[in-house]
Design brief:
The chain has about 210 residues and is an alpha+beta fold. The protein is built from six helices and nine strands.
């Protein structure tokens, strides 16, 4: 007897006699469906709240072991600009997050620093961090989260971010391109690793593929 996890298809060979046992066949089909649900659990984005922060920190520690930020940084972002903070949740467990907020153009915050406030003159948007656990990557969930923050950013002239881990090609899918790289920016980028790049995109009504 063989089966495929993707299609939930059952092929009975030497055990074909089991087909005559109606109750057993139903049990097998139910088991297969349950197995697929466990292997590919659904996940969705929702607003981030203070009570999520401990779980968010666990995700951050796993995804960014070399770029640590304190819990106070995450807590401050949620307090200052909650509409730009989301978590990816599956079965009441946090499996990813995205944090974003307005800034002045070309003034992204240094790693692991507090903002104190959102400047009144902030007319550009910044994606501070996007992190998703490996078991939930490759499903289009990142694109869904990015769409959410780009919707929030629509009233700003541009959206920017600091790309790490060589993810330029990924961000180009959403219209981001390398931006200004003067001495001050280069010094700030060094805190994010050797491959860090400052990226920008113009905010439009059609931002990215999903």
């Amino acid at each position: 007897m063989t089966h495929s996890n993707r299609s939930c298809h059952w092929e009975f060979t030497s055990l074909i006699i089991l087909v005559t046992d109606h109750h057993l066949v139903i049990l097998l089909i139910w088991h297969e469906t349950t197995l697929n649900a466990k292997m590919n659990p659904t996940a969705s984005w929702r607003p981030m709240y203070n009570h999520d922060l401990s779980a968010v920190m666990l995700v951050a520690d796993e995804i960014h072991p070399g770029l640590p930020e304190g819990a106070s940084v995450f807590a401050e972002r949620v307090e200052l600009f909650p509409e730009g903070c989301f978590v990816l949740e599956s079965r009441q467990e946090i499996c990813g997050y995205i944090i974003s907020h307005p800034i002045r153009r070309h003034c992204p915050p240094a790693l692991d620093t507090l903002l104190v406030e959102i400047p009144p003159t902030a007319d550009h948007y910044y994606i501070h961090d996007l992190a998703i656990l490996p078991s939930f990557q490759g499903r289009g969930l990142a694109a869904e989260g990015i769409k959410k923050v780009l919707d929030v950013a629509r009233n700003c002239r541009t959206t920017c971010l600091i790309s790490v881990y060589g993810t330029l090609a990924f961000w180009k899918r959403f219209g981001f391109e390398p931006g200004m790289d003067d001495a001050d920016m280069s010094a700030k980028l060094r805190g994010y690793g050797n491959d860090a790049m400052y990226l920008e995109c113009q905010n439009t009504t059609e931002q990215a593929p999903v």
